[in-house]
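pls read this protein:
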Amino acid sequence: MTQFTLKLTSKEVELLAGLAADQLFRREFIDPKMPGYRADLAHGKVLVERLRALLDPRQALKTERLSSNKRLGAAR
């Protein structure tokens, strides 16, 4: 897999995270009503979490705790 190094300001990362989150919402709740729809939302959601973690590391810890609690609950 090719990796890229990209320099962005915090405002640019904030804008990208917001746009990506809005697009994921559209794909999850609006697009499924269209014929032939297919999407992989899991990778996009992880990416949005990573972008938001860059902006606020404290929020990333909260999100990680919630995600691990959900996984533990699902495993029971």
